[in-house]
Amino acid sequence: MLRGLPAFCVFYRIVSVIRTIHHDTLKSLLRLDAISTSYGNTRVLNDIDIDVKEGEFFFLLGPSGCGKTTLLRILSGLMHPDEGTVWLGGKDITRLPAHQRDINTVFQNYALFPHLNVYDNVAFGLRMKKRSEPEIRSKVEEALRLVSLPDFGKRMPTQMSGGQMQRVALARAIVNEPAVLLLDEPLGALDVKLRKQMQFELKQLQRKLGTTFICVTHDQDEAMTLGDRIAVMNHGRFEQIADAHTLYNQPASHFVCDFLGDCNFLQAVVNGRVDDKLSLTAEGNPISASAPQTTPSGACIIGVRPEKISLDGSRENRVEASVEQVVFTGSHYTVIAKTSRGTSLSCRMFNDRPSALPETGQAITLSWHHTDTIVLPPNLSQSQ
């Protein structure tokens, strides 16, 4: 049932189903087996495995310093791993230099040649490959058309906006028709509104080309909007690889749950299993959750997303709290409340019913369905 869910949740659910069906029909193109590497005595990648499919839009998502850019450099051939193997189309390319790989990279800073016009920037790689001028002209014009810059060939980079320069950088990469296109924070230098516009254009371009895109980002919304699958990285390893819907609603760890969107966390204890539900106690309150295949025991962490919480106390899981603050954020209000044990919890209400908002200091009952309780093991409650 999708009725009653926030619009963005419905969107992610529908898109994830389509992506899962699409992904299951694709062939493997790029594979990493047990990739590890260190800088001095510091391990930055630890036993990384990836299997990326043909035509997939794959994201490496994580905070600064987690190892995602190092992994991108290994994929591109700019550095070699200490251990492990990189495969492309069934061929071992681990030690192959960057210029011999069927892989191109788009950088956050665009890396355009300032002394060359747009046409010559895009044509540069083809000229290095000694292609004929008629072929170069045809491919460059097609690449500029694909990025919606058909009449910009004579312009210099200094005459263009950030969004236009990003399109030129994309054109320069796709004109070589690589098997894999790597994108290193490609939209990070753009303002918020332009970034949203470019997200749509980037996805449209990827669909038109059918090329495998692998994108590095720390932007959760960008990864969830564009990615067919997302690998969430933390301290040089993968916490979880899945589609956006699975990561958001069935996170494998506290880190994934906390990194992808807002979430409320409570210390809890598992009491046992009753039919298809898990019985727990959190801050003295009986809490139920959908029972996993393997029933956990003892202490755990439970999470619940703010948009899943109701203020009317009508759902089976209930926690009493006192309102501390009501924050207006445009499309919705965020109600921040504190339990009797001092735990802060937040919930979201759309701004179509401001009269229903509680007052500061008011006693309220927060409630949510058992299917919205996320159960996490206690040993993963902190980033490791």
Task: Name the beta content range.
Answer: 25-35%
What's the CATH H-level superfamily name of the largest domain?
P-loop containing nucleotide triphosphate hydrolases
Structural class: alpha+beta
Helix/strand order, N-terminal first:
HEEEHEEEHHHEHEHEEHHEEEEEEEEE
Our Rg estimate from Cα atoms comes to: 24 Å
CATH architecture of the largest domain: 3-Layer(aba) Sandwich
Total number of beta strands: 19
- Percentage of residues assigned to helices: 25-40%
Mean pLDDT figure: 89
Strand order of the largest sheet: 6-7-8-3-9-10
- Outline: elongated
Number of helices: 9
CATH topology of the largest domain: Rossmann fold
In the residues, how many domains can be counted?
2
Major beta-sheet overview: 6 strands, mixed
Low-confidence stretches: 1-12, 380-384
Distance between the termini: 36 Å
Can you identify the CATH class of the largest domain?
Alpha Beta
Tell me about this structure.
With 384 residues, the chain is of the alpha+beta class. The protein folds into two domains: 27-250, P-loop containing nucleotide triphosphate hydrolases (Rossmann fold, 3-Layer(aba) Sandwich), CATH 3.40.50.300; 262-376, OB fold (Dihydrolipoamide Acetyltransferase, E2P) (Beta Barrel). 27% of the residues lie in helices and 34% in strands. The protein contains nine helices and 19 strands. It has helices at 7-24, 68-76, 118-128, 133-146, 162-174, 192-209, 220-226, 244-249, 254-259; strands at 28-39, 42-53, 57-61, 83-88, 91-92, 103-106, 180-184, 212-217, 229-234, 237-242, 264-274, 277-282, 285-290, 298-304, 317-328, 332-339, 344-350, 363-368, 374-376. The chain has a six-stranded mixed β-sheet with strand order 6-7-8-3-9-10, sandwiched between helices. Strands 13-12-11-14-19 form a five-stranded antiparallel β-sheet, with no helix packed on it. Helix 3 crosses helix 4 (133-146) and helix 3 (118-128) packs parallel to helix 5 (162-174). The longest helix is centred in the N-terminal third of the chain and has 18 residues, at 7-24.
